Amino acid sequence: MRGRWWQEGVVYQIYPRSFRDSNGDGIGDLRGIVEKLDYIASLGVDIVWLNPIYASPNEDNGYDISDYDAIMDEFGTMADFQALLDGLHARGLRLVMDLVVNHSSDRHPWFVESRSSRTSPLRDFYIWKPGHAGGPPNNWKSVFGGPAWKLDPDSGEYYLHLFAPGQPDLNWENPELRQRVFAMMRRWFDRGIDGFRMDTINLISKDQSFRDLGADEAIISAGAPYINGPRVHEYIRAIRTEVLDRYDSMSVGECPGTTPTTALDYVGFDRRELDMLFQFELMELDYEGGDKWRHRRFALPDFKRCVERWQRALHGRGWNSVYLMNHDQPRSVSRFGDDGRWRVESARTLLMHLLSLGGTPYVYQGEEIGMTNVAFPSIGDYRDIEILNHFAEWSSSGRSIEEIMASIHRMGRDNARTPMQWDATAHAGFSAARPWIAVNQNYASINVAAAEADRNSILAFFRAMTAFRRAHPSLVYGGFELLGAEDRECFAYRREDGSEALLVALNFSPKSIERDFGRGLVPLLSTYPPSGSQGWPAPTAGTAEGGSIPGSASVSRAAASEAAGVELRPWEGIVFAAG
Fold first, then answer.
1. What kind of fold does domain 109-160 have according to CATH?
2. Residue 62: C-alpha distances to residues 103, 107, 115, 416, 442 (Å)
3. In CATH, what is the architecture of 472-577?
4. Considering the chain, what percentage of its residues have pLDDT values greater than 90?
5. pLDDT for residue 406 is more than 80
6. Which end of the chain is more exposed for a tag (fewer CB within 10 A), N or C?
7. Is the predicted pLDDT of residue 550 greater than 80, yes or no?
8. Where are the domains of the chain?
9. Beta strands in 243-290 (DSSP E)
10. Confidence tier at 218 by pLDDT (50, 70, 90)
11. Dihedral class, residue 379 (left if φ above 0, else alpha if ψ from -120 to 50, else beta)
């Protein structure tokens, strides 16, 4: 299976609240995105994924939806949405919306009616249970902290919320609820969108025994009674037949707690469910005991084995999605690279890695200029509900403020949610007013305007790399062979699809290294700029000569001498044509 637009595309994720404010209220909006459409198109991406833009009270920044058919007031109007959609399509770009149907807002009319009475006709649209032994129905915990059940005093029953109390879980066991969701999805496709990213979609089926979570089961784990539940594949196949198959669509599901084996149940070419999914194994490498707030160091071989496992397991059987960060994760250069001395070099190498893997790559706003984590000094500077709940929970346990803040600085979701850094003017050119969350103070040096003026910038390389990927289909469809699995400095792999073989060599260290990958390698692209600081020319498809990026010192030596040894400078990556 190959040739679908979503297979060969690169996705650019936009967090609308933090992208660009067009009306001076400090909140990003749809018209702000419209203002930047030419910039987005210039990146060489093909698909834009928007985080939720629906009406919402914003207890969880739009992931608590009160009206699936309306635009959030802060973001604009349906006319603004249409202008954005038309502008994207006019530039040859596709639009993917966020679909949040594991839960709604507690202010959604469905829930308002559901909680009005035990006999309400919509009572069964949500999951209501009587208490047990004077407490909640079971011991399930919320992802955001505390119990996953909230008592409704008027009816005397508890409702389930796996996330915030303002995000009650929908009951997919109810066939009328499912049909209403399908109808809503079709309305958005009829408006002209191209696909959906489905939030926590593998949580929509709950084990109807509602058993307790075992002592050895993490809140988000493969065996939890609300993950990969008994009817989840039935429900997703219904989404496929009732909605997705009626359109030229793309679907990607957020699926925590999946392994390469269980992932194939969702994205296998023979399954007719999702086109691809987001897995979390790579994102959890630095979790201590499954807890994101407890940090553990991991070695490069761990990272490599995780990438290899997913690349090999799905090749030819299903479709991968690949990412290094998103709105829920820290900044990739701060987490997997070096956001200090080697920020520029490591950011370019991480982008080369991301865009040289099989599957569909996802790039998050600001990743293309190497935006970094933020370290706000006070908890009052943060806005994310998960961070605030974490701070309260750990503070009450007696942990030091320094330890708590260090974990927030390292892993907090607001790292990715500070405003996009457009230029060195006030508020980073994001807004004329004070933003809803402060900008990262390094915006004066890390911003789009500065990157546009520098032909050797991360942004310039990113554009060269998206063009390079487009010119070399083996990076999209080829097989994956890991080289030097235990090497703690170099990440090297072959990508081959029958018509072309490429070798990707990435130095994940702050020193020069040399490795022997055999003879006959022809250098095509380096993350270090060509000599003379002329920037990266757009590569062309076809021959190695036509696709080469000349000028890098190490590339030139390798090409001229035909030597077996390849030198990689600190945090340098090179793609070679391989025999």
1. Oligo-1,6-glucosidase; domain 2 (3.90.400)
2. 12, 12, 22, 15, 27
3. Sandwich (2.60)
4. 89
5. yes
6. C
7. no
8. 109-160, 472-577
9. 250-254, 276-278, 287-288
10. confident
11. alpha
